[in-house]
Specification:
The protein is of the alpha/beta class. Helix 4 packs antiparallel against helix 5, helix 6 crosses helix 7 and helix 12 packs across helix 13. The chain has a 5-stranded parallel beta sheet, with helices on both faces. The longest helix has 22 residues. The protein is elongated. The protein is 58% helix and 7% strand.
Length: 347
């Protein structure tokens, strides 16, 4: 296959050429969006899984579904030490400006903008971009208590969205980075919107430990949210993810090659795309780690020396170590455990 036509492109959150094995999760998101848009109750959900299973891709797909359902959607990618107040203030402003242009929602949208200005002031968020011409409404999201102010703010926005005939979807990736206070406030805000039957829904994605962290934040979280687990693909879905993009380009795999890819990657989406992207890409990523492993890891060093001792060229021996590293990484991801240097423990 010509490099310029190679459909495989591994990367953090980049969409795969064929999104396999996630139909049930996307169908659940679509149903939730439809119900919320129709004024019906629906559970928000947070997809949990290890890195490399495609959670970010799923969040992007859900935002696309939300846009197709005529939602106002905001997408937040959380990071270490993020303040939810900062991210929400910047993301919600354009939503409210669009709502304020609808005649039937104008007054409620202006009220919500006033609440957003109060919210930004209460949490020392920069006013840049928040409408200074809108007078704050006393008593609306202005206490400086996130547990009180965020629910008030989302209720105001939900009221404006409902009267406009629209809805709001909040999508947060890497949600485990939120502080416990921010997480509690977010859960409470979504809960209050559900109680008022407002068209507000939240989808998130995070690492497996998130479930326990959110349970600590609010005891009723599992009644409010679902936590679908995103894992490695099934063999059938992994085969589809590998074969379909190649077949679309007029290329096919031998059965032996396909079986080896499935074995080495343990059907993890990122590794599937990583290996398929081309041998040069794989060599570039694993070459230096292999050299370090040969030098500092006793097991890898012994394997390398054994291959050299039986006459294997150094490049062949290094390639064997690279392969062992790829297999090791896929096993650790599948089992959700950190790597431990057994040679150091045995010493």
């Amino acid at each position: 296959m010509e490099p310029g036509r190679n459909p495989y492109a591994p990367g953090a959150g980049t969409p795969p050429p064929t999104l396999a094995g996630r139909d049930a999760l996307l169908a659940a998101a679509k149903l939730a969006l439809e119900r919320v848009h129709n004024g019906r109750s629906a559970k928000s959900f947070i997809a949990v899984g290890l890195r490399g299973v495609g959670k970010t891709v799923i969040m992007n797909q859900i935002q696309q579904l939300a846009d197709e359902e005529d939602f106002r959607s905001i997408y937040i990618e959380a990071f270490d030490e993020i303040r939810l107040a900062d991210a929400l203030t910047k993301s919600l402003r354009p939503v409210l400006l669009k709502l304020s242009k609808k005649a039937n929602a104008h007054d409620l949208a202006i009220r919500a903008l006033a609440g957003l200005r109060s919210f930004a002031s209460a949490f020392n968020v920069s006013y840049q971009g928040v409408e200074m011409t809108v007078k704050p409404e006393e008593g609306l999201a202005d206490t400086g208590d996130m547990l009180a102010d965020l629910p008030d703010l989302l209720l105001a926005i939900g009221e404006a969205a409902r009267i406009s005939g629209g809805a709001l979807a909040i999508i947060i990736d890497e949600i485990q980075y939120l502080s416990e206070m921010d997480m509690s406030a977010l859960i409470m805000a979504i809960h209050r919107c559900n109680q008022k039957s407002l068209p507000v829904v939240m989808f998130g994605a995070g690492l497996p430990q998130l479930r326990g962290k959110m349970g600590d934040a609010k005891s009723y979280v599992e009644r409010l949210l679902d936590f679908p687990h995103v894992d490695a693909l099934s063999l059938e879905d992994a085969r589809l993810a590998i074969e379909k993009p190649a077949n679309d380009e007029g290329v096919s795999y031998t059965s032996d090659a396909l079986d080896e890819i499935l074995r080495v990657t343990s059907c993890y989406p990122y590794f599937l795309r990583f290996i398929q992207a081309g041998r040069a890409h794989l060599r570039q990523a694993l070459y230096m780690p292999a050299l370090a492993a040969i030098r500092f890891n006793a097991d890898m060093k012994a394997k390398y020396q054994a291959l050299i001792a039986v006459g294997k060229p150094p490049k062949v021996a290094i390639t064997a170590i690279m392969r062992k590293l790829a297999i090791l990484a896929s096993v650790l991801l599948r089992e959700g455990r950190p790597w431990h240097d057994r040679s150091a423990v045995n010493a």
